[in-house]
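Help!! Second protein's tokens look totally different from the first
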Amino acid sequence: MQLQQLASNILGMNKTPSPQAIQAWIQLHRTQRQLLSTVETALKSQDLPALDWYDVLLELHKAKGDGLRQFEIGEKILLNKHNLSRLIDRLEKNLLVERHQCSEDGRGNRIKITSEGSSMVKAMWPVYSQAIQQNFAAKLTEEEAQTLSELLAKILPAAQ
């Protein structure tokens, strides 16, 4: 018996992904990496910070004056959560966020965006949105974008 088949039987997984599913998986990851790289290049060309800065600052901007706890930021951001503490340290060093003692837990902090941080979000968005438009939206009809969104929504709940 082949090792893969044996493992599948032991683990109770009798199905393997179809070649089409494997190809879609590969394309999804390649596309995501390429699109993010394109956005990063566009931001860098305008002397703007990396996309992960925007991701965190946007969530704090949406939270308004209340700010967010670090774990809440981690739950909301689109990008990789590892090194979030160091990223927040860099944002604070650049005066884009401030830490405030958390009223509900004296040991924790709430992270709040500063006016400089809000200005940075506003400076980054035109570059980010243009990269989305040129490298993603312009290649799809609105119907295709809707279909893609619906297909991905079917997968996301299962992955969480």
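Here's the second one for comparison:
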Amino acid sequence: MEKLLDITLKNRKILQNHLKNTPKEDLFKIPKGFNNNIWWNIAHVVVTPQLLIYNLSGLDFTVEEELINKYRKGTFPDGEPSGEEIEKISEYLFSTLEKIKEDYEEGKFKNYKEYMTTPKVALCNVEDALSFNVFHEGLHLGAILALKRALALER
């Protein structure tokens, strides 16, 4: 468990670096051949554990449901977020991981509803969800790198 959270933390630091150091116009631009942008991928990574860990454990979300609905699987970018929303997501990159760790240590994830992910990985407990989340976040970091390359080629 500790190793999974450590890997996730390292990935989140990389995502924060992209968030802080990518020009705003590039954060929100959708290059030709893509259906989302760098910003959406970062926000999506923040909200997905809310669904895979908290929701499937029958617990309340630890971020606003509005954000979850805006960036969950099956959504697409819809305009530019406010400065307040950008700041919230930036903070949630780390605060939500701390909350997961705290709640895990307190044994809050006891009742887990099994779930089959899109890539056909069965999640049977919170440990499965945390393991899958590492994979999921890696996919989206890869998508961000591809988006950055595509944006550079469009210049």
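Reply: Different proteins will give different token patterns, so don't panic. The helical segments are 2-21, 24-28, 38-54, 65-71, 83-105, 126-154.
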